[in-house]
Amino acid sequence: MGWGACSDATTAADKVVCFSNSASFLKVLAPGVFINAAGITMSGTSQATPHVAGAIAVLRSLYPLETVTQIEQRLVTKGTLVTDTRNNVTKPRIDIMSALGNPCDLTLSPTSLTIGPAGGTYSVSVGTGSGCSWTVSNQVDWLSVGETASGTGPGSFVVQASILSDGTRSAVVSLTGSGAGANVNVKQTADATAPAGTVSINSNALYTRSTSVTLSLTASDESGVDAMCLSQSSTCSAWGPFQATKSFNLANTQGVQTVNVWYRDILGNTTQAPVSDQITLDSLAPTMGSLTGTSTSTSVTVKWTSANDATSGIASYKLVYRRGTTLPSAGCTNGTIVPVTTSFQATVSGLSRRTTYSFRLCAVDGAGNTSSGATLRISTTR
Question: Would you say the pTM of this structure is higher than 0.85?
């Protein structure tokens, strides 16, 4: 038979035509010579390609849970081997009937389950022909199958595992039917590791003026976090349920406060060394220094010595004044604000002659406590 660019001395079924592609990396062969379709007869790779595509479509319809790789393997492993005499390369020619196998063969997804020590519920999908029945069987007491332990056609079932406190165990859940059966391999390993977690006080603030604070807590564990214990000492016995946010009352002692947290999982594994966070309690206002002043006919210059706060330090000063002998309120909550620098003095200009002005200077510490303030009454000159 002549093909223009080449010719075959003989023709036969499963003989590789002289114009065919051929290589060691070729996956499969398919019919491509004198193909009758749509009222015409053609030859070429354009005829072989739709044979493969059609075969894949048929396999996909019967085995919807199989991956592309699994379907490809059906065509490759179930094909009829053909040798290309031009180079002695042997490849499978697709055989759809062989690749189909038994439509009632069972396929599962997934085929293996790795279950955490806390157990749980897991779903398994079943693939098979639409009229094919199947039944799930299980031989161990720590695994149970949900209500759907049998079915007809594609479906699913549920595997439930109990808590494992020690060691490792495995089991096989089997499916049988009118075709080839399938198994799910199940493995469960105990959890001997305590939870890991963190704690932060008032979103990692440095200072607090109140003994009442808010703890932000995180914890994770393979088995699930069951409880936590909060304490300011090195030991703890008052366990409670885990909470991501928890109100806590610090000891009423000025200075650094430490909160320790232990976590416990549902299997009883407990953190040996607690996680902790610190915050400085400062509920006392700063102690003021001295306040003095000098005046001219239209200005007053106020000077002061440093205030003191042993716990959180002095963060800023606030200076206010008002005309007359009535002092601004404690805490510098009213009066005209005077810009303050770090030079421990400030000057107010544009004042009236021979008039008394009242000043109050307040210190603010790192925790936000504000002193009642030091006061000064001073008059401008003529």
Answer: no
